[in-house]
User: Fold this.
Amino acid sequence: MRKIIGGLLLGSMLLGSLLLFSAVYAEESDPMTKQPDAFLNTPILPLRDNYCSSVMVISPKSRAEDFLHAFDLLKKEKVGKVFFRFSDGSVVTNVQEMTLLTNGTMFLLKVTSNQGVAYRFVLIEDLLEIGHS
Assistant:
């Protein structure tokens, strides 16, 4: 009988400690219990100017195929030299060929200049614009 009562006391002490710990932990981790007014009055700011609220997920290979198709259309027009504008601000002109690599995440550009032919590998996320110059 003594062991049963001792076990019950020990069990209730452990349960009480656990409940106390969980209540304290919940109070520390919940920002609403500390300062609910400060949380509710925090202004919501846009991530950047002209931020577009809609998001469209496009696979890299689909985007690469669109760039390749746009390049082919511009080459057929033969209005001027095809140029590429990149995210670092650089522009490449006189692009003669554009080849999509196997996984669809990079291009190989063949560029002609006075020095001859040059090749450049480009990540699709670095390509911003294709056009005629």
Notes: Residues 5-10 have pLDDT under 50 and may be disordered. The first helix runs from residue 2 to 29. The chain is about 40% helix and 25% strand. The radius of gyration is 31 Å.
